[in-house]
Amino acid sequence: MIGEIIRANVVCMNMIPNVSDDLAKALNLKPHQRSLGLITGSIDDVTFIALDEATKAADVEVVYGECLFSAFVGIFTSFAGEAIGILAGENPAEVKSGLEACAHYIENGAYFVNGNDKGESIYLSHCISSTGSYLSETAEIPAGMPLAYCIAPPIEAIYGIDAALKAADVKICKTFLPPTATSNFAGALMTGSQSACQSACDAFAQAVQYIANNPIVI
After folding, report:
1. Which stretches make up the BMC circularly permuted domain (predicted)?
2. For 149-207, how does the pLDDT look when each residue is reduced to its tens digit (9 = 90+)?
């Protein structure tokens, strides 16, 4: 049904309390970062937003976050998901707090939505009131700035980004052109005031729903 919420879930999660020197070097860890938290989520963009939330909830840094090719999930592995994140911190307690915040947000925070009654087009249109260190670096904005995180299938996304930019006083920080590693999606990160970011998200959602319900129009 149109407007139906599609939530993500944690696929796999664990910790390395005291990381080996070689792995620390491979991940370019800082000298004080001795503990790692490992997590995969079933939806990539939700996982990335959740990783950012972890940096606000605990003294941790996202040292690795990437989409995963998901074509073989469920065939050769059940635990890969669509995205992986690695949190680094000074001690296991901090990393545990970060992982818990990340996991809670994956399952209870941002979500995708059905764009039409047949479930043929899903989208994410999420306003982040204050970014943590991870998404701030991704979007190349100061930490604590509002962010509109908008993702949809390719035509819906491009149409929606245009609508968002026309409806609200926001600017694009980063674009995701199709295809992505996990699917044929596209989108953008946009920043402005919190109210402007929310307006951009609302306009994006309306535009995506329009295309999803009117896929062939000239």
Report:
1. 1-111, 112-215
2. 999 999 999 999 999 999 999 999 999 998 877 678 999 999 999 999 999 999 999 99
